[in-house]
Specification:
The strands form nine sheets. A six-stranded mixed sheet has the order 5-2-1-9-21-20, with helices on one face. The protein has a four-stranded parallel sheet with strand order 13-12-11-17. A three-stranded antiparallel sheet has the order 6-7-8. It is globular and about 70 Å long. Strand 25 and strand 26 form a beta hairpin. Helix 1 runs parallel beside helix 9 and helix 4 packs antiparallel against helix 5. It has two domains: about 190 residues, FAD/NAD(P)-binding domain (3-Layer(bba) Sandwich); about 150 residues, FAD/NAD(P)-binding domain, CATH 3.50.50.100. It contains eleven helices and 27 strands.
Length: about 425
């Protein structure tokens, strides 16, 4: 009987692991609770009506239609049984494995305040993107009907919490929508008068980047009309707005806003805690499973954990082990290494430690605005503005899955650049929970 390898999750890590097993004499079962692979770096474009969902998502079955050793299953994994070597589903079903790769990804972290979630949705899935898009577009619609000045101002105040790449990209794009896409379409409001606030609890935005690029990003945001408030810690969120503490001895102040987006923190998928409990492994504060250098779970060499679910370190020769960041290039590299180590075990060879190769960070801020921190084999390069924006654009086109996706996104971006229009401004229902395309 052929060796059975189960991969949980079809994000960047799971996708690369399955592809790395192409041609191997193994049977791969790829399990995900959705039927598509999502290109998350462009998810904010769906949330802000720049792209439609099919442009950044591809059906999993279609991606592996020609890889005959892969079977795809749609299901939600709720438990792993290492003793019986079974993966158990929410519907009561199960699938056996000889080797397991867990790549279930991450979810939102509200730092112990999950009650904030209904008032400040995060951005991880297509459903999240549809909900944020609904809230943004309907805020302008409600403002058009509102006669009370205070409530009118609250509808036109948009708050993004978190100054990382997602927060910066969302804030910059919201400013572009207000300033360039919607003016002229309303009769009783001026969308360009909307207030876009970006709140960051730290001392600067894009803290993973060099200070020079962080400062450049903040200048570009200001040019777009975004108000950046640093050292701003959110202490409460409700349906009418939020409270913010600026530090020192100053009391919290309140911001009235009817459209708040959470981009401040992530936590490992709940499956991480279950894996840790089932295997006796350690998990960190974010719920990630602490893994061995070869990405396997301590004491369970047949189970590997990768991507955002793994508290992994990079073991580059001549360097101290360093924590691996939760970014898509790291997940893809982990997927390839985990698959290769399984094949090494099957051949009776020693496994190899994971070595993360950091090629840099990118973040777009708006039209002709971006920052790039790039590591090349020859030198470290930092640049911003229009050249960085062009680099960001073509890098994302290149890494998109499938020729059709690349072509659709390129056409949509070209049209949007020259017309400043966003044609994905469709909301199927004005009630929460609607699912748009």
């Amino acid at each position: 009987m052929s060796v059975r390898i189960v991969i949980i999750g079809c994000g960047f890590g799971g996708l690369e692991a399955a592809r790395a097993l192409r041609g191997a004499e193994v049977q791969v079962t790829l399990v995900d609770r959705t039927n598509h692979h999502l290109f998350q770096p462009l998810l904010y474009q769906v949330a802000t009506a720049g792209l439609s969902a099919p442009a950044i998502a591809a059906p999993v079955r279609h991606l592996f239609r020609k890889q005959e050793n892969v079977t795809t299953l749609l299901g939600e994994v709720v438990a792993i049984d290492p003793a019986a070597r079974l993966v158990r589903f929410a519907d009561g079903g199960s699938v056996p494995y000889d080797h397991l790769i867990v790549a279930a990804g991450s979810t939102h972290s509200y730092f112990g305040h999950d009650e904030w979630a209904p008032h400040a949705p995060g951005l991880k899935t297509l459903a999240d993107a549809f909900e944020i898009r609904r809230r943004v577009l309907l805020a302008f619609e409600q403002a058009e009907k509102e006669s009370d000045p205070a409530r009118h101002a609250a509808w036109l105040t948009f708050v993004v919490i978190g100054g990382g790449p997602t927060g910066v990209e969302l804030a910059g794009t919201l400013a572009e929508i207000a300033r360039h896409t919607l003016p002229g379409e309303f009769r009783h409001i001026d969308p360009a008068g909307a207030h876009i606030l970006l709140l960051e609890g730290g001392a600067r935005v894009l803290q993973a980047m060099p200070e020079k690029l962080s400062a450049s990003a903040q200048r570009q945001l200001k040019k777009l009309g975004v108000q950046v408030r640093l050292g701003a810690r959110v202490t409460a969120i409700d349906a009418e707005g939020l409270e913010v503490h600026a530090g020192d001895d100053t009391p919290p102040y309140r911001i009235a806003s009817r459209c708040i987006v959470w981009a401040a923190g992530v936590a490992a998928s709940p499956l991480g805690q279950q894996v840790a409990q089932a295997t006796g492994a350690t998990s960190d504060r974010a719920g990630r499973v602490v893994v061995e250098p070869d990405l396997s779970v301590p004491g369970h060499p047949t189970i590997s954990v990768i991507g955002d679910l793994a508290a992994a370190k990079s073991w580059l020769a001549g360097h101290e082990p360093r924590p691996v960041p939760g970014v898509s290039p790291a997940a893809k590299q982990m997927g390839r290494v985990a698959a290769a180590n399984i094949l090494r075990r099957l051949r009776g060879e020693a496994t190899q430690p994971f070595r993360y190769h950091d090629y840099g960070n990118l973040a777009t801020i708006g039209r002709n605005s971006a920052v790039v921190d790039l590591w090349t084999p020859w030198r470290h390069v930092e640049f911003s503005g229009w050249p960085a924006w062009m680099f960001w654009l073509f890098a994302h086109i290149y890494f998109l899955i499938g020729f059709r996706n690349r072509l659709v996104v390129l056409i949509d971006w070209g049209s949007a650049y020259w017309s400043r229009e966003r044609y994905a401004r469709v909301v199927a229902d004005i009630e929460p929970g609607a699912r748009d395309a």
